[in-house]
């Protein structure tokens, strides 16, 4: 019996999230934040009681300024529950105005003017409520705060101070509400912009995947369909040719499956939390370097293809290289499936400022109802537009169909794009 120990394959432990993002750490942080917020609220109430009970003979201005500063302890409560912070500041400001005994001064109106400074904290909190809460809640909070402040001003301000304090109360509250509305509109606008950006990004990615799948599958399926038809017609009379058709079908199918697997693995790697188990490295995206293999597969489908290259061949950016390859691939697919042509010419010109690819056939051209075949030419136009290039498609006067794409090149293309 073989006693050789067997090695057990173990999966590597997943990486630990950064500090502060672990669920337990996040829970502790939230607990500390809540504790600090409620401690600040309790301390605010205690300081107000000490202020009103320990210094009853102080000036009203002193009470107003002190209560305004004490309201800074409610920052934590304001962040978590703005309505509770509004209630606390409103009760605190009301207590500062109502509870202290009346000072014995000549100008009663002037003496009590400083007490209303405590309502500035109420206005600041009110602005936060308007900015963060629903409109109905914000309107109710504004109405309640305005009524309380106007009642206190009417009951404890006299003479000229009554009008001044009433006007200041209304103006301060209006200013805080306007700031809150501006913040609210800015936040809603930013949220709408983010939603629009996400929607556009999702749409662009869906179109990119649709183009890749279409260009990848349509060409291969077209070749498979043609070869299957050829094999079916000659399987009894010309078995060697039928076997060659089956070989082409097998090779094309395997290549298509490999490309699909590579695309799906790439999508899984790009997805949040995705992995690429079983695929240590991905094959590079196709480009003009694979043009000969593409042409060979097209020739197997019964179409004679001539390739002409001009200009100085050099590494191209990955997006330009892939787009040029897909345009040639889709054009050849349309020739094989729709043109009824026997000959096709592919021209690739490496210019100094742009790359030009042209595909011309001697087939029947486009039907009078339109020149596009399904989504193929639509995908070409999208690829060229993304690279700020130009695409020309249409029937030639002398017969056949022509596809020409001009793709701008960056100032320097000495370094190949990623994956090439």
From TrEMBL:
Residues 1-11 have a biased composition (Low complexity). SUPFAM superfamilies: ATPase domain of HSP90 chaperone/DNA topoisomerase II/histidine kinase. Keywords: ATP-binding, Kinase, Membrane, Nucleotide-binding, Phosphoprotein, Transferase, Transmembrane, Transmembrane helix, Two-component regulatory system. CDD domains: HATPase_UhpB-NarQ-NarX-like. Residues 326-411 form the Histidine kinase domain. The chain crosses the membrane at residues 36-55, 61-78, 83-100, 112-131, 138-157, 163-183. It catalyses: ATP + protein L-histidine = ADP + protein N-phospho-L-histidine. Signal peptide: none annotated. The lineage of its organism: Bacteria, Bacillati, Actinomycetota, Actinomycetes, Kitasatosporales. Pfam families: HATPase_c (PF02518), HisKA_3 (PF07730). SMART domains: HATPase_c (SM00387). Its EC number is 2.7.13.3. It comes from the Bacteria. PANTHER family: NITRATE/NITRITE SENSOR PROTEIN NARX-RELATED, NITRATE_NITRITE SENSOR PROTEIN NARQ. It comes from Streptomyces solicathayae. This is histidine kinase. One of its GO terms (molecular function) is kinase activity. Residues 1-25 are annotated as: Disordered.
């Amino acid at each position: 019996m073989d006693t050789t120990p067997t090695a057990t394959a173990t999966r590597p432990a997943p990486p630990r999230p950064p500090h502060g993002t672990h669920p337990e750490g996040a829970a502790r942080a939230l607990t500390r934040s809540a504790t600090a917020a409620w401690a600040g609220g309790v301390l605010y109430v205690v300081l107000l009681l000490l202020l009103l009970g320990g210094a009853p003979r102080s000036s009203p201005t002193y009470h107003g300024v002190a209560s305004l500063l004490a309201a800074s302890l409610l920052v934590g409560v304001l962040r978590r529950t703005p309505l509770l912070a509004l209630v606390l500041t409103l009760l605190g400001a009301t207590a500062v105005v109502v509870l202290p005994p009346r000072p014995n001064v000549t100008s009663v109106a002037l003496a009590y003017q400083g007490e209303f400074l405590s309502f500035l904290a109420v206005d600041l909190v009110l602005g936060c409520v308007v900015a963060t809460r629903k409109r109905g809640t914000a309107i109710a909070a504004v109405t309640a705060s305005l009524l309380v402040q106007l009642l206190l001003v009417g009951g404890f301000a006299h003479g000229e101070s009554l009008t001044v304090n009433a006007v200041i109360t209304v103006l301060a509250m209006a200013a805080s509400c306007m700031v809150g509305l501006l913040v609210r509109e800015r936040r809603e606008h930013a949220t709408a912009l983010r939603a629009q950006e996400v929607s556009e990004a999702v749409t662009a990615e869906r179109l990119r995947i649709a183009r890749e799948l279409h260009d990848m599958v349509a060409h291969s399926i077209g070749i498979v369909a043609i070869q299957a038809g050829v094999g079916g017609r000659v399987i009894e009379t010309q078995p060697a040719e039928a076997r060659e058709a089956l070989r082409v079908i097998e090779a094309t199918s395997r290549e298509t499956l490999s490309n699909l697997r590579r695309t799906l693995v790439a999508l899984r790697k790009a997805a949040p939390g995705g992995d690429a188990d079983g695929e240590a490295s991905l094959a590079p995206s196709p480009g003009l370097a694979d043009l000969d293999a593409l042409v060979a597969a097209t020739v197997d489908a019964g179409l004679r293809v001539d390739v002409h290259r001009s200009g100085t061949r050099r590494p191209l950016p990955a997006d330009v290289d892939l787009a040029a390859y897909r345009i040639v691939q889709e054009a050849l697919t349309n020739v094989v499936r729709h043109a009824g042509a026997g000959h096709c010419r592919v021209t690739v010109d490496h210019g100094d400022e742009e790359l030009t690819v042209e595909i011309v056939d001697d087939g029947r051209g486009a039907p009078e109802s339109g020149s596009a075949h399904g989504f193929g030419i639509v995908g070409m136009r999208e690829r060229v537009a993304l690279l700020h290039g130009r695409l020309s498609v249409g029937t030639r006067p002398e017969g056949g169909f022509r596809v020409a794409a001009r793709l701008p090149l960056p100032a320097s293309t000495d370094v190949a794009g990623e994956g090439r």
